[in-house]
Amino acid sequence: MHSDPQPLAPLARSLRAGDRRPTALVDDLCDRLDAVDDDVGAMLPEPGRRDRLIREATALDARHDDPASRPPLFGVPVGVKDIFHVDGYLTAAGSSVPPAAITDAESAAVTRLRDAGAVTFGKARTTEFAYFDPPKTRNPNDLGHTPGGSSSGSAAAVAAGMCPLALGSQTVGSVIRPAAFCGIVGFKPSYGRIPLDGVVPFAPSVDHVGTFTADVAGASRAAAVLCDGWEPVDPDAPPVVGVVEGPYLDQATDAGRAGVEAGADALSDAGYEVRRVSVFDDIDAVNANHDALAAAEFALTHAEWHAAYGDRYAPESTALIEEGREVGVDELADARAARLDLRERIGEHAREVGVDLLISPGAPGPAPEGIDDTGDPIMNLPWTNAGVPALTVPCGRVGDLPLGLQVVAPFGGDESLLAWGEDVADAVADVGAVDA
């Protein structure tokens, strides 16, 4: 099986113009789901999904019969990771805890998408509480490999062509990594740009809402709806790109490093100025701070649920809670402060060395074999800890498995990252087989 993602931006334009009807689109996407999801396992079952979607698409058409007044995501079906609360659905968060104990008011992100004309395609599978215990989801590029996690179903659904847009979340690497593994575009904005209201928390100091699309233009269209204060920019010059080296890059595999080198060469060939920079000489300390922060806040956010339903938690989740309980108050305060220091350091260093964007592997390498492990988020960790915006775009392959190029901007540079990201993605799109 091969992935078959649908770019969001041209699809949204055709829906708004009336060249494609929302009812016909949801019918086609339900056909696609019926054809492939028994193998991929991206979406949670929903009896009557097709009838519901056709009803909603018909009603949407009736409300917006004038193409000139149609909202930006008119008729776009969206897959929603099952840690987001959605009116009309229970939230299980990939767990065995009773959904009635978890479900709450609809998330702000989902409401914003609905208000922009999107329709909910359904709930996408996730690891338990966005941590471990992988779901049955498989990588559409090679069913013998993981799609990544914890936003497993969201990434796989977009990559397999079941929906053109999906919501995910990232506390370490749960948007950028699965997007890299599945060969699509993942976008995690600056911390706080998309509200976390109505999302089951993991570690609120580093939790982010993110998106999956097949195209950077589609990520920009979704970001304009989801992000607070979005103001599109049109940069007047190409960015200077910094290739991150040093101890941080040493955490990647040979294939991961080769993918970045291939991407850097493609950018240089396309006329970009490419520089070599070392950003995280203290990566071990950064990793330790993030791990302590995530474990401590996971223990705090799950204290009540775990007290009532601890026997229903996966052993790995319980172990993380126990680890988090050992983190002292002062250590947690220091870890929270360290993420803000790191954010400043990244911005200052980028200015000092004169780079606009930083590139690195979207994951240590291609997707690991099997679905019992969603892969290592280590290449995403420092950027998530700092809360800076990150984008991954397809850049080369190892066999049938994609590699992703992680592109990062300083905090608050979301609009510039996506504006530049379209050309960056085009420049590396033809990177072929990477020598692993």
Summarize the structure in words.
Helix content is about 40%, strand content about 15%. With about 425 residues, the chain is of the alpha/beta class. Among the domains are: about 10-225, Amidase signature (AS) enzymes, CATH 3.90.1300; about 285-330, no CATH class. It has a ten-stranded mixed sheet, sandwiched between helices. The protein is globular, with a radius of gyration of 20 Å. The two termini are about 25 Å apart. GO terms for molecular function: catalytic activity. This is Amidase. Pfam families: Amidase. InterPro entries: Amidase, Amidase_dom, AS_sf.
Helix fraction by DSSP (H/I, runs of at least 4) = 40-55%
Class from helix and strand fractions: alpha/beta
Q: Look up the CATH topology of the domain at 8-226.
A: Amidase signature (AS) enzymes
| Backbone shape | globular
DSSP helix count?
A: 15
Give a count of the beta strands, DSSP E runs of length 2 or more: 10
Order of helices and strands: HHHEHHEHEHEEHEHEHHHHEHEEH
In whole angstroms, the N-to-C terminal distance is: 23 Å
CATH classification, class level of the domain at 8-226:
Alpha Beta
Topology, please?
Layout: H1 8-17, H2 22-40, H3 49-63, E1 77-81, H4 99-102, H5 108-115, E2 119-124, H6 152-159, E3 165-170, H7 176-182, E4 185-188, E5 208-213, H8 216-226, E6 241-245, H9 254-269, E7 274-278, H10 283-301, H11 303-309, H12 315-325, H13 329-353, E8 357-361, H14 381-386, E9 390-398, E10 401-408, H15 414-428
Parallel strand pairs: 1-2, 1-3, 6-7, 6-8
Antiparallel strand pairs: 3-5, 4-5, 4-9, 8-10, 9-10
Helix pairs in contact: 1-8, 2-3, 8-15, 10-12, 10-13
Region (Disordered): 131-151
Protein name: Amidase
Organism: Haloplanus rubicundus
